[in-house]
């Protein structure tokens, strides 16, 4: 009953967000960047933060699936397919977010045709493209047998399965063993790929020496670890909702809670290290960025959103007796995933909110030359639309993904 109510609420929220997002996309497509609040000083905003956030969710989700298909971890076997699907959906959300941020959206294909291989961005685009192809292939071989069996149904689901089976009709044991081998190869190849593009996003920021707040050797590692934290937290939540995590598969959710707590504590350790390095190093630009984060205009994001909601409360939920309840563990996963988004915002914005030329913003009176940034309504609407789109894909996946990996637990 609890899961049914959550699923209904999920669909209602997804449709609502999609409808809201349509207007946001309309503004972006017909009015460009004129309605966005970033400008000549703060040139990246909500959409860039959403991009690195969703790409991190994808990396972390893929890690969970790799534990099943590469390392044969039976604890998470029930959610292996769901984790791969989650990785694909969140990757699509990431690419939509960065596409919206481009000045000329119609030129998105230029980077593929005219790449500059001296630029980390070019390598990132090729990594994303290869990774997305790998995810599509892995999902196909994970579900090929289920599609072949499902297309025998004389209904809409059967017709969709017929299309997705790509003409395959083999249900023999030999074909299923072949599929498993292919999945293991793809999952194994995907692990270094995920590490490369997660750390690569951090590298995109870390190599910008003109922005001391970003210019740190720890950034690639920080991005990778926070990506894993957010991805595993999201899988914890969706497995609770879509894989009967409150009843049949509650042990899986509880085990995920232990895993995400471990990753979260490591992430906190590295964030503290970055903080101490900045202040002990005494680099003015680096300290100025952290001052904005901890005591400036975005302190509420750091202390409230990221610190209390995304870190302190989840840690308490995952170490107190509530750690044994799938409901509380799922809530902790939701709060951690939300908190990491605050972390992403506090990476992108404060690094740009430090004057490179002292007094520039007070010398030029223009709303585009401002150190204060808060996303405009159109930026929020479009982002909500991307979230709604992702939720819609999750809903479709829940309908088509087989439940064969679920095993009823004894009580």
The number of distinct helices, counting runs of at least 4 residues, comes to 14
Average pLDDT rating: 85
Work out the helicity level. Answer: over 70%
Strand residues, percent: under 5%
- Going by CATH, the homologous superfamily would be Formate dehydrogenase/DMSO reductase domain
Secondary-structure blueprint:
Layout: H1 2-31, H2 46-69, H3 80-101, H4 110-113, H5 120-150, H6 156-164, H7 173-206, H8 219-242, H9 250-281, H10 284-295, H11 299-319, H12 326-352, H13 360-363, H14 377-400
Describe it.
The chain starts with a helix and ends in an 11-residue tail after the last helix. It has 14 helices and no strands. It has a single domain (37-356), classed as Formate dehydrogenase/DMSO reductase domain (Formate dehydrogenase/DMSO reductase fold). Residues 404-411 have low confidence and may be disordered. The chain is an all-alpha fold. The chain is globular.
